[in-house]
Write a structure and sequence with these properties.
By secondary structure, the chain is an all-alpha fold. The chain contains twelve helices and two strands, in the order αββααααααααααα. Helix 3 runs antiparallel to helix 5.
Length: 288
């Protein structure tokens, strides 16, 4: 009940972003009936974005558009990782049950990818925190760093652990900086709720202006690494254009989202959609 009251209070929370005030709203289901299906959409959406990032890497490596046990493992594993620890009963039990199809797909993976997936699971466990211990998500800086490293690990290292070290390093860091920027957007959306609950986050410490500045730098770093990948023959000009377009869209969309009335959950879904969009553009331009 305390958590619900905090959400209600956040309806009227006002934050100053740039030169104007913005209302961060939480709207009831009777205002937006479509919100009834939001929990179901969000349950699958993050996993779909993770699979899209994996497919993007495989297409860049010249494998073409294909789905196999790796995509199945990433899909079910992402659902488990995000929902099994949930305090919402149906999410928790659904996440636990989907551990079994994730395990089935994992069994058929090559040994090196199996080992990498175990390392990724350990990293995510450190992010969440084990019983009786704080996790990385409890640290303002550690939270976005752990999230970005975990996503880059899954989307780059799992598909091609045998890539040359230069290729792996460039693409890995490019994706890590990109996801770090999206993680800052998440923290900004949850800033008032996190503050009420006593959570220390990077967005809470830096404020909107400082957070947007850091977000911009993360996108700049990602774009520089993408350019280096282009000059090293990892990306062609069309792939570079696809990456740059989504980085630019991220720089515009995330601040714009915080100036809109609407559900926090919709805002988060739209931020995740930037990963899906980047992957879709790259795949389209490569296979065109």
């Amino acid at each position: 009940m305390a958590y619900l009251s905090i959400l209600e209070e956040s309806k009227t929370a006002i934050c100053k972003t740039s030169s104007k005030f913005t209302r961060i709203g939480i709207y009831q289901e009777r205002v937006y009936p479509v919100m009834n299906i939001l929990p179901i959409i969000s349950f699958f959406w993050t996993a779909c974005c993770a699979v899209a990032m994996v497919i993007q890497t495989k297409v860049l490596a010249g494998q073409g558009l294909e789905f196999g046990v790796l995509e199945g493992f990433v899909f079910f594993g992402t659902i488990v990782g995000y929902n099994a620890p949930s305090q919402t009963k149906w999410r928790r039990w659904a996440g636990i049950l989907l551990f079994f199809p994730a395990l089935y797909c994992w069994w058929f993976l090559p040994f090196l990818i199996k080992a990498g997936s175990v390392a990724a699971a350990i990293l995510w466990g450190l992010y969440l925190g084990f019983p009786g211990h704080l996790g990385f998500r409890d640290g303002p800086w550690l939270k976005p760093i752990a999230v970005s490293l975990a996503w880059a690990f899954v989307s780059v290292l799992l598909p091609f652990p045998e890539w040359p070290i230069l290729t792996v390093s460039l693409v890995f860091l490019e994706k890590a900086f990109f996801v770090f920027a999206l993680a800052i957007g998440y923290d900004l959306i949850d800033r008032f709720v996190d503050k009420k609950l006593g959570f220390q986050t990077l967005a809470g410490q830096l404020g909107p202006k400082g957070s947007f500045r850091l977000l911009a730098w993360m996108l700049i770093f990602s774009s520089v690494l993408a350019a280096v990948s282009f000059f090293n023959g990892i990306y062609n000009i069309r792939e570079l254009a696809a990456v740059y377009s989504t980085l630019l869209l991220s720089a515009v969309l995330i601040p714009w989202q915080l100036n809109q009335f609407g559900s926090r959950q919709w805002q988060k879904l739209s931020i995740d959609a930037l990963m899906f969009l980047q992957s879709a553009l790259v795949v389209y331009l490569v296979l065109k």
